[in-house]
Write a structure and sequence with these properties.
Layout lengths: L12 E3 L9 E6 L2 E5 L6 E8 L11 E7 L8 H15 L5 E7 L3 H9 L3 E6 L15 E7 H6 L1
Parallel strand pairs: 5-6
Antiparallel strand pairs: 1-2, 2-3, 3-4, 4-5, 6-8, 7-8
Length: 154
């Protein structure tokens, strides 16, 4: 969407815990998560969030982690940094027991982020209907998961 490339108003930027000092801010209170920005440039990076799915899943109750970054910010460590910060907050402050995420099997970048933050593949999943036209849809997807105990051991 076009809004992935717009620059937000810096007056809405709040401090965000980042491990590499690359990701320094979020715009708070978005329905689907947090809008990420860099405080040093004010550039809008994308979205990251922890959400409770509205649909009932075989492994409910559950919390999903997800992100979507503007293409020019791929491969720079922002998704990994944001995911680590969210998982840390989720397990330490929100008392979550398990967090999961899904990606298409061909999305090697998202798979790598999930692996870097300690998540593991728990099952292969079919490609959702809304993604059937995407390149690589025939390969399906993967569901990753991390428990609080796994997070604490890393």
């Amino acid at each position: 969407p076009a809004d992935l490339y717009e620059r937000p108003d810096n007056s809405f930027v709040a401090q965000f815990i980042g491990e590499n000092n690359k990701l320094l801010g979020v715009i708070e209170d978005l329905t689907d998560g947090k809008a990420l920005v860099r405080l040093d440039t004010g550039e809008f990076i994308g979205y990251v969030g922890l959400t409770v799915p509205v649909r009932v899943l075989p492994f409910s109750p559950c919390v999903e982690i997800g992100w979507r970054l503007a293409h020019r910010f791929w491969g720079k460590g922002y998704a990994t940094e944001a995911a680590r910060a969210l998982l840390g907050k989720g397990f330490s402050e929100l008392d979550l027991r398990v967090v999961w995420g899904e990606t298409m099997a061909v999305n090697l970048a998202s798979r790598k982020v999930m692996e870097k933050v300690g998540m593991s593949v728990v099952e292969e999943i079919p490609t959702p209907e809304d993604m059937q036209g995407a390149q690589g849809a025939e390969r399906g997807g993967l569901r990753f998961e991390i428990t609080k105990e796994q997070w604490d051991r890393r």
